Amino acid sequence: MARVNLKGLGVAMITPFSADLQVNYAQLEKLTEHIIAGADYLVVCGTTAETPTLTSKEKKDVLACIKKVNNGRLPIVYGAGGNNTLKAIKEIKEARDMGVDAILSVVPYYNKPTDAGIYAHFAAIAGSTDLPIILYNIPGRTVVNMPAEVTLQLAREFDNIVAVKEASGDLEQMKQLIAGRPADFLVISGDDGITLDLLKAGGDGVISVLGNAYAREWGEMVRAGLQHQWEVAASISTRFQKMNEFLFLDGNPAGIKAAVAELGLIDNYLRLPMVPATPETVALIKGEM
């Protein structure tokens, strides 16, 4: 298994749509170049990409488009998981065949598995591939929390489970992970707003929503934190505090799509059941920009 550097700023990329709600690949190419200018790696087909609304072919085409533009410059992490373990394993094999560098795999949602079920799910996934795997804990969407004990057990037992994206909002759980992790296991923030606090606790970066619009600036913040340049990191983080709040007022990716559209990189269209941010929220985002 090739080790991939997943420290720093990863960006959970949005999917641009045209007015007819087809994927706008020309805008996706432009967005990819914009993000590459500041990111350390790209995260393709995660939650922020509205992936549940994409067909299997569209997901492959989105990945192919981003790979072409990236041209090997940054590692590509691909979102492949879900609440059907065998289906997730099949999707990971297909992604490997397309040449991704790592997998981001979410805790199973809707099924409400026990801790033993979560462990068995990821053990099966890890045993099916040699790709590096980032576990993704986001109880606000999955309903169940993956406890630190389960994450650490998986990290110790499987060499290719290399990181966790923690979006639990529980800084104490994240500190428990940092304290108990094996060597080289990364603890990555899944929430832009808590990233600086996690870096101060010894974390390794963020998989970011904000980075779709502000990859250069947010990447500078993360890298400053990793180098313990706390005044620089805090100054940048404070500048984006309100923006990080406004982007989520109407759900993700409604807010970030409004911001990226304001930059002229995409048109502001979402697929149902997601709808664009309200005019009031757009006004707040524009004002902050």
List the helices and strands and how they pair.
Elements: E1 8-12, H1 25-36, E2 41-44, H2 56-70, E3 76-79, H3 85-97, E4 102-106, H4 115-128, E5 133-137, H5 139-142, H6 148-157, E6 161-166, H7 171-180, E7 186-189, H8 195-200, E8 205-208, H9 211-226, H10 230-239, H11 241-246, H12 254-262, H13 279-288
Parallel strand pairs: 1-2, 1-8, 2-3, 3-4, 4-5, 5-6, 6-7
Helix pairs in contact: 1-2, 1-9, 3-4, 4-6, 6-7, 9-10, 12-13
Question: Overview of this structure, please?
Answer:
The structure is a single chain. The protein is of the alpha/beta class and 289 residues long. It has a single domain, classed as TIM Barrel. Strands 7-6-5-4-3-2-1-8 form an 8-stranded parallel β-sheet. Strand 2, helix 2 and strand 3 form a beta-alpha-beta unit. Helix 1 runs parallel beside helix 9, helix 3 packs parallel to helix 4 and helix 6 runs parallel beside helix 7. The model has no long low-confidence stretch (mean pLDDT 97).
Keywords summarizing the entry:
alpha/beta; TIM Barrel; 8 strands
